[in-house]
Backbone:
């Protein structure tokens, strides 16, 4: 039985292949053909033939694969006359006939040559198909223009602050309040990240309604740059596509909509963007929070976020940002950014006084060097394996050329070798990433001598903290009494105990090797009861702070009193 293929393409108004396939199969069987290939496509017939995936696959067919291709009508193959004619000729040169069911047109005669009458007929139909496509495109564009003139929405996706109802754009009053807040905050000097933090702290939902994503500064920026909010919806259209040498040409039009803010406020906000970009004066910029992205709740395991408490910038437990399914009701609370940053920075400055830190840095670098040598040796061996596999592929190609392998055996051998090569390349990529990180650790200079010679800017402090600190975990005992545990990337840990109550307002910093935090917060409830009053352990072997009699297990209050007795408490600035 002769072999044939079916090419199916559906329009946007008829998304069902079933009818086409059933009738084409019946037609093919009636002519004595067995269908061995079916190509299903939803790409538009107006698109260039090189961009249509299934058509591209079908064009790989030769007369060895099929004798004929059955298509519903010529518009299924292409709506471009030039592409249509090129495809008919392309398959004709291969000796593959195309049978269009709709007009019962067959491209090749019995002698395998393209029919002259069919050629003229197909050309005319191809031209009409292209004209039909262009007319549809023109009608669609005309219809859209008429709709815009009638006041229909200029966009199918309503901006935040608006809703589309019956194709018209209306102000969403609840969202509009948040839009006004964003413009007012930015105009008053707040930055986009600050506004995003405010929106997130107020649990303002995004337009999408999704609860697993949050506001980010990029989203706020887009809002503040959108002229729709002062009553001018902006519609950009590409009139000429970009080329390798010229950019795309666009037309920009504005449509009247109901305004949410005054134009003078919008203009003032745009002016502030211009000042921020062009001026070196950053005095209005919000000071960076040096622990941002480092500070984490040790109880709910969520990162702290920035917030505002009566005009004072604070770190807030990230549980307030979680969606309803991920909230745990953590009560870790908040504390001022200034206090937290200063306490951790004091600890960071003090670590250079510890011999243990310097030793740990040296040990860490030596260990990294050993790991680097091990990874580089492994990388060399893997590259040798890749070379061996390349040689194996060359041998298979040579063997195939000499007739030692048939098609199936050669493909099987090359597939096996290529699979093994891909596996090795994946491992190589992972090891190369490790080598980069190890080199960074080896070449890192933790000796920030300038810490002792001058006061750093907040940006510089943030850079140092990001270089040194892995994480700062926060544990709450009361609203005022907390512990910040600073874990450094080189493996050292420091505990900052502090009481921010007005009458006390003190802190102390303890090396975890000297006074070990037992972290009962993450223990099961029954274990926490057993460990109650045993927040810290002081051992006699590493007791560098106290007299020999101070060792054993102590509560937070006990350690605080011991530190007070030995004059280790300091006032919070």
Residues:
């Amino acid at each position: 039985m002769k072999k044939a293929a079916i090419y199916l393409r559906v329009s946007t108004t008829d998304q069902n292949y079933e009818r086409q396939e059933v009738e084409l199969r019946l037609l093919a069987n009636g002519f004595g053909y067995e269908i061995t290939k079916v190509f299903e496509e939803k790409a538009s017939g107006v698109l260039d033939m090189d961009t249509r995936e299934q058509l591209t696959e079908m064009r790989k067919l030769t007369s060895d694969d099929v004798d004929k291709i059955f298509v519903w009508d010529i518009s299924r193959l292409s709506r471009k006359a030039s592409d249509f004619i090129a495809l008919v000729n392309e398959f004709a040169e291969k000796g593959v006939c195309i049978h269009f069911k709709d007009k019962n047109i067959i491209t090749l005669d019995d002698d395998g040559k393209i029919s002259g009458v069919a050629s003229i007929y197909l050309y005319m139909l191809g031209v009409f198909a292209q004209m039909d496509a262009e007319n549809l495109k023109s009608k669609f564009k005309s219809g859209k223009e008429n709709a815009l003139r009638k006041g229909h929405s200029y966009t199918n996706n309503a901006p935040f602050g608006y809703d589309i109802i019956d194709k018209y754009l209306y102000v969403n009053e609840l969202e509009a309040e948040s839009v006004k807040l964003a413009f007012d905050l930015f105009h008053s000097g707040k930055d986009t990240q600050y506004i995003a933090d405010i929106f997130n702290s107020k649990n303002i939902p995004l337009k999408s309604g999704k609860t697993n994503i949050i506001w980010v500064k990029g989203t706020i920026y887009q809002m503040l740059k959108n002229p729709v909010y002062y009553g001018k919806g902006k519609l950009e259209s590409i009139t000429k596509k970009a080329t390798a040498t010229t950019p795309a040409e666009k037309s920009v039009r504005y449509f009247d909509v109901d305004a949410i803010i005054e134009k003078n406020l919008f203009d003032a906000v745009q002016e502030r963007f211009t000042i921020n970009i062009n001026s070196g004066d950053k005095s209005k910029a919000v000071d960076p929070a040096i622990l941002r992205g480092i500070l984490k709740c040790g109880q709910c395991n969520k990162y702290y976020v920035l917030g505002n408490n009566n005009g004072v910038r604070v770190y807030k437990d990230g549980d307030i940002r979680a969606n309803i399914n991920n909230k745990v009701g953590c009560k870790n609370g908040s504390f001022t950014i200034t206090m937290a940053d200063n306490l951790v920075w004091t600890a960071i400055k003090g670590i250079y006084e510890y011999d243990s830190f310097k030793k740990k840095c040296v040990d860490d670098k030596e260990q990294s060097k050993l790991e680097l040598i091990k990874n580089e040796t492994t990388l060399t061996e893997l590259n040798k394996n890749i070379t061996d596999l390349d040689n194996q592929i060359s041998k298979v190609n040579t063997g195939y050329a000499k007739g030692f392998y048939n098609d199936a055996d050669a493909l099987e051998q090359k597939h096996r070798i290529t699979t093994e090569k891909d596996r090795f390349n994946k491992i190589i990529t992972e090891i190369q990433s490790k080598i980069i990180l190890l080199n960074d650790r080896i070449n890192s200079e933790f000796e920030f001598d300038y810490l002792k010679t001058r006061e750093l800017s907040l940006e510089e402090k943030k850079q140092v903290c990001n270089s040194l600190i892995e994480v700062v975990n926060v544990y709450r005992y009361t609203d005022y009494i907390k512990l910040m545990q600073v874990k450094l990337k080189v493996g050292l840990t420091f505990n900052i105990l502090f009481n921010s109550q007005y009458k006390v307002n003190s802190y102390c910093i303890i090396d975890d090797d000297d006074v070990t935090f037992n972290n009962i917060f993450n223990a099961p409830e029954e274990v926490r009861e057993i460990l109650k009053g045993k927040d810290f352990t002081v051992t006699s072997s590493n007791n560098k702070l106290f007299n020999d009699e101070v060792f054993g297990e102590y509560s937070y209050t006990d350690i605080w009193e011991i530190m007070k007795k030995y004059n280790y408490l300091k006032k919070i600035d």
About this structure: The longest helix spans residues 355-401. The two ends are 92 Å apart (CA to CA). The longest strand covers residues 33-41. Residues 2-137 form a domain with the Rossmann fold fold (CATH 3.40.50.1390).
